[in-house]
């Protein structure tokens, strides 16, 4: 974005009708202090971003470049930089190579490795030298032998690093990995030292003062085993403790200086799911390192720098495994660099980027990487959004992600109260179903959506296992993204490209292949250019969503820039404004005689259905204030015809014929107009007013 036009990208996205919520400037406060020369310019740009409802994001890490002289000298004089410890003698090349081989063997054998037996494979002199470095004079069977040898091997490699500081007890300096072809040197901050947190907090305040609302909080996993920390804990143990201390420093400071978002405070207050009302402060950061305490010290995480390929180790497929692993260790929000980051000479293909967009939209967080590096560290830019084809594809999933906000935020409350991450491995969602736990590359997103992304090259279909205990409705497979409609033969949700709305287009059945019982497996098709990502809703769920006109999940700060609305057009709507006036629902009643469904929004609104003895479907909504529109789409079975509402003014319901499409879409007036709606007893035909003005129900019947 050019400094003279900080909203250039935002305006383009508005023109394309693609919602965005973050302006990631990637301005590096560390290691180089890039903000120093552009502070006033950055402050102005960020004020405009915030006026548009975008959260400006920057970049932090725990390194201080020696070229950032003011900060490096200050930290060094205060003793806040990790130092080099006493240097043991080097091992000779032969011993180093032998230990490297042993480490490889040891890691494969795990706890069963017998160090004594393994080291006896070395010549006598080398064996004695190796045991001296392992800190033992009498070789014995040990359960940690493999990790000890591996740590030793890493230490050997680090000691031979050409940039290691030769002087003992001096700040440790080394070449910065992220420098690419133009290396520079950095030191690592020692967060075990008293005073480091306060020193670092001053730089966080600097970011907050110029308007930043978040940042990538990078690294934390780097720690040479020769390093000397102020708490005198060994470098090998500090490898795991360091990211905990580093992340806690940021969290504690943000909590001390910031309050929860104003829009959220006004919208939900002290909701029953969080009676204390102690929501997170109005800034966030996402991390890539961590240990056991990290879930309590962070809000968000991502998988680091994935490769721009389909690799099961570090590419698209590997990112699914990594995100689910982060969820298993307690990280509530886990995402990945959409498109990848570390690329070969050719960069990511269109297919890879499109499949990654699908996965990102259904992840713990959805953030794109518009650039990365090649194998030599040189920067390169991804070009997915340069074409109409790419933008059209991206719009579908940006709309989907944004509209799912109420459901995802409800899942965020569950992460807080039940320690359930947004992306749930089946070990968490269905702990007694062994087949589910063994099913790769699928997961629950929140409580009610099963996601099965396609993560292999040229893949157009995949097997999906449906965990026991539920029935699943295929809501996206075979639903096209065209203007007029989807494939024949079943229900699903159609993306209407005209207004960006996802429309339910009928019910589900076994015959159409869109209804699946638990404890079963099925083959699903998802052609990249014609179908949406395979997603399955649990039958009986009601999912709250946003209006499709929402363009940002932030809050427009009209007080920052005068007449902000004129800058962004009348269509720009933020989440607080939208939810204050309307809430939308996808409703999937059970196909049996109960016709049951149930759902709740994070702001306390609940929706439920049940089938009456007459066969009519009763729909109830309850919330603390009846002052907004509810737009309800219900997946009725194929035998349903026209839908009418009884016990309500005729103007309450609309026809289910929308521009020729078979769509159930009920748009009510404001609840203040229908607060005295009545509920009719199907058996006796008697109607009575609802007992209070906070609960409303009406009946939908199937007409001949």
Description:
Helices cover about 30% and strands about 20% of the residues. The chain contains 19 helices and 40 strands. By secondary structure, the chain is of the alpha+beta class.
Features:
single chain, disordered C terminus, six-stranded parallel sheet, globular, 704 residues, 40 strands
Distance between the ends = 58 Å
Helix content: 25-40%
Low-confidence stretches: 105-113, 135-144, 153-166, 479-490, 559-572, 638-704
Give me the side-by-side strand order of the main sheet. Answer: 1-2-7-9-10-11
Q: Name the average pLDDT.
A: 77
- Put simply, the count of helices is 19
Helix/sheet category: alpha+beta
Shape, principal axes of CA atoms: globular
Count the beta strands.
Answer: 40
Which percent range describes the beta-strand content?
15-25%
Q: Please outline the major beta sheet.
A: 6 strands, parallel
Provide the gyration radius in Å: 28 Å
């Amino acid at each position: 974005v050019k400094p003279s036009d900080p909203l250039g990208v935002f305006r383009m996205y508005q023109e394309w009708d693609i919602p965005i919520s973050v302006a990631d400037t990637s301005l590096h406060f560390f290691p180089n202090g890039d903000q120093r020369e552009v502070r006033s310019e950055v402050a102005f740009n960020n004020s405009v971003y915030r006026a548009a409802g975008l959260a400006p994001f920057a970049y932090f890490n725990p390194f201080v470049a020696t070229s950032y002289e003011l900060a490096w000298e200050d930290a060094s004089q205060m003793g806040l930089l990790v130092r080099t410890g006493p240097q043991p003698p080097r091992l000779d090349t032969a011993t180093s190579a032998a230990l490297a081989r042993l480490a490889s063997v040891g890691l494969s054998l795990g706890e069963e490795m017998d160090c004594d037996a393994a080291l006896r494979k070395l010549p006598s002199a080398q064996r004695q030298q190796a045991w001296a470095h392992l800190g033992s004079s009498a070789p014995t069977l040990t359960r940690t032998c493999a990790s000890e040898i591996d740590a030793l091997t890493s230490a050997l490699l680090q000691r031979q690093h050409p940039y290691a500081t030769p002087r003992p007890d001096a700040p440790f300096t080394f070449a910065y990995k992220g420098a690419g072809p133009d290396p520079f040197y950095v030191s690592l901050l020692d967060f075990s030292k008293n005073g480091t947190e306060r020193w670092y907090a001053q730089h966080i305040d600097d970011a907050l003062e110029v308007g930043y609302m978040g940042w990538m909080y990078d690294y934390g996993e780097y720690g040479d085993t020769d390093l000397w920390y102020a708490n005198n804990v060994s470098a090998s143990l500090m490898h795991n403790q360091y990211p905990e201390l580093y992340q806690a420093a940021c969290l504690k400071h943000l909590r001390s200086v910031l309050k929860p978002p104003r829009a959220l405070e006004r919208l939900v207050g002290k909701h029953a799911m969080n009676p204390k009302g102690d929501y997170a402060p109005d800034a966030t950061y996402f991390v890539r390192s961590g240990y056991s305490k990290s879930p309590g010290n962070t809000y968000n995480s991502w998988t680091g720098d994935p490769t721009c390929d389909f690799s099961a180790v570090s590419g698209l497929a590997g990112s699914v495994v990594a995100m689910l692993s982060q969820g298993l260790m307690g990280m509530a929000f886990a995402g990945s660099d959409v498109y990848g980051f570390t690329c070969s000479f050719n960069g990511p293909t269109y297919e890879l980027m499109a499949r990654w967009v699908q996965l990102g939209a259904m992840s713990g967080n959805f953030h794109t990487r518009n650039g990365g590096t090649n194998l030599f560290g040189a920067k390169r830019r991804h070009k997915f959004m340069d074409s109409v084809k790419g933008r059209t594809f991206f719009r579908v999933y940006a709309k989907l992600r944004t509209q799912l906000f109420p459901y995802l935020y409800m899942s965020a409350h569950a992460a807080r109260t039940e320690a359930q991450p947004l992306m749930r491995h089946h070990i968490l969602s269905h702990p007694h179903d062994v087949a589910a736990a063994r099913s790769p590359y699928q997961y629950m997103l929140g409580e009610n959506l099963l996601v099965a992304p396609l993560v292999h090259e040229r893949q157009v279909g995949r097997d999906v296992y449906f965990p026991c205990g539920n029935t699943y409705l295929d809501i996206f497979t075979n639903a096209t993204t065209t203007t007029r409609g989807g494939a024949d033969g079943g229900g699903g949700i159609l993306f209407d490209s005209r207004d960006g709305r996802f429309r339910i287009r009928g019910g589900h059945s076994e015959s159409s292949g869109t209804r699946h019982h638990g404890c079963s497996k099925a083959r699903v098709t998802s052609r990249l250019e014609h179908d949406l990502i395979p997603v399955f809703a649990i039958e009986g769920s009601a999912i709250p969503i946003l209006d499709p006109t929402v363009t940002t999940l932030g809050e427009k700060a009209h007080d920052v820039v005068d007449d902000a609305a004129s800058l962004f057009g009348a269509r720009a709507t933020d989440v607080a404004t939208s939810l204050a006036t309307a809430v939308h629902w996808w409703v999937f009643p059970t196909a049996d005689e109960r016709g049951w469904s149930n759902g709740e929004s994070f702001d306390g609104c609940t929706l439920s259905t049940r089938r009456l003895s007459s066969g009519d479907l009763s729909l109830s909504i309850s919330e603390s204030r009846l002052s907004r529109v509810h737009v309800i789409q219900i997946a009725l079975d194929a035998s349903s015809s026209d839908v009418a509402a009884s016990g309500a003014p005729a103007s309450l319901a609309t026809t289910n014929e929308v521009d020729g499409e078979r769509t159930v879409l009920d748009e009510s007036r404001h609840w203040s107009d229908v607060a005295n709606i009545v509920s009719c007893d199907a058996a006796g035909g008697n109607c009575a007013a609802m007992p209070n003005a906070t609960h409303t129900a009406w009946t939908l019947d199937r007409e001949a």
